Here is the input.
Amino acid sequence: MYKIIKNSWALFTGFAVIMISHGFQGNLLGIRAVLENFNFIATGTMMSGYFIGYFIGANIIPNLVSKVGHIRVFAAFASMASLSSLVHVVFVDPIIWTLARFLTGFSMIGILIIVESWLNDRATNKTRGKVLSLYMFVTFFAFALGNLLLNVSSPKNYEPFILISLLFSVALVPILLTKRKPPTFKKTSSIKIKELFKISPFGSFSMFCSGFIFSAMFTMLSVYAVTMNLNVLEISILLFSVTLAGALFQWPIGSLSDNYDRRIVIIGCCIASSAFAILSIMASGISFENLFVEEMFRFNYFSTETSMDKTKLFIYIILLSGMTLPLFALNLALVNDYIPKEKFVAAGAGLNMIFGLGAIAGPIVCSVLMSIFGPNGFFVHLLIFFMIIIIFGVFRMNRRKYEDNPESTFTPLPKDITPLGIELDPDTGVDLSNTSNDKK
Here is the structure.
């Protein structure tokens, strides 16, 4: 591990700073949007702009990297991400913010593609599991740490946006000054969506629903929190805890999925998540009987005085996150159970596209439900897609017996990982022995 850090410290340092900034920016915008009296639908649409840019960028940027190289693309997109953060503070308008979020999403997928292809180049068949673990740790911990920066200054001020821009700019320094040569970029093929649904209908469909769930959790939770009159410190602690819980729960849940029918584990996670969503609604102190009262106060989007139990609410939301965030890797492992090892990465690329399609619509659907049901519409959104996964999962279990594939095991993964990052999983069977510039 020491050798890995020594050889790739500049890459991990720059990436960590970017993820801190990324985690800070997304939730800062959710809070600021509420404070600026953006309606829920405008806020949800703005948040979806990120996923649209991410999805489009995933299909365009690999060609760009092949033409102009890693370092230039990384510098260009880090600069673009820095610029988009300043646009938010200069032009406080939902339409402009949606376009800025599109640029951020387009930039972030470019940065992730560069980082993960570079890590592939640095890893060997013996070290790639350790590289993937370190990459996951940096991703989750830095993203969680970014939420604590919400306490630096009031979201109403311009300083937080300046700090985001500064962090994106600082992240360029260690990578641009590295002496090591950039890798030779290779594109990753994907399995068509239609074929993936034939291979594993439940795994593919669950991944599509997971896109709706994950995108709402990572964009609209901050909106929910501020409309519940939580202060900035409370919101930052909640978001920090939610991110770490999502990372820590992956190992025990993944271990269960390797020993039992993965479909049962996915359904079980959704049942547990549904229970915690219902308990969160109860702890919020807002019953659906009070919706007409909430309508009277919708002009400012803050909940009326409630009997909210903050401690229980925090615990339930954190447990909800812990049971939910492993779904991405569970779905990927389930599909891999039905295909040979050499197709794991191609399947991951196709599943990323399916996930992205759901993620684009997630914040918009969630915002519509929050407009109808008030802040707890956030949990209604999650419940709808949990129930859809549960019902379809039970249906598929009665149609097809589970097939155990000894080559497929659960690997904890960040939600934003690209197919290049999936190659770091030792179970993919990809030979990295001849791809590194640092192995001589």
